[in-house]
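User: Hello, beginner here. Can you help me understand these amino acid letters and fold codes? It all follows right here:
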Amino acid sequence: MSTATSPASPLTHPHTSLGRLSFPRVIRSEWIKLRTLRSTFWTLISAVVLVVGIAALVAVAIPDKSVLVGQVPAGQRAAIEAQSSAFATSAATAGLTFASLVIAVLGVLVISGEFSTGQIRSSFTAVPRRFPVFAAKTLVLFVVAFLVGLVSSAASWAVAIPILNGKGYAGDLLSSDTLWAILGAGAYLGLVAVFALGVGAILKSTAGGIAGALGVLLVLPIIASLISGLTRTQWVADAQHYLISNAGQGLAGVANGDIEPWANVVTVLVWAAVAFIGGALLLQRRDA
């Protein structure tokens, strides 16, 4: 007797499903890349130290309310009383600008580092459509930067408010305004990371990406402020409120002119979205 075998029946491997490509697997690979970089740890630690440390220094440096009130003319004392709670916001968010610069550098390095080492070609070979790789990088980076911003901002408020309360200034850690400011600071740092990642993808260069991202975050507001102050041009003064850094400060509770809170949110989202879309489109069209 002979056993008949069917040539049409394929042999199946019991572990075939383990190699199936899916977006969660791409996210996992990008998370492994991010957390195994030594620069990631030190960059995030630097951001936390800047936010919390500068908040503590500013809170300690602010003079007692009684001393400050006694040093100003009688006509200005009412304004200081009305702006008492603003001192807590200013102290707690004093390090946010510096932290955003650090996070922006990390955002650029996440993508430009792969271009410089050639690892991006391996990523695109594994995921030929390319967009899932960029989307996964964006999602992982946003979540990490958001959580770091949330924790560091909460810590900065927790440090600054007791010091300022002891000096006679108003401030409540559990008030709705404070909680929204903490959430807004975390969201701002997360969106700054997305913006910088997009800039890095557009320029494909570490030096160029860092220069471009920091130029928009730091240099552009300075230039706009100088032009506005020297030329007294009203439209420049109005336009600078819609820069990502100024709107980000508004997200964290700092007054940004007469801009409504929702406008600050939309402004930062637009900056991040434009950079993300630009980077995604160029990644699809250019050689790695």
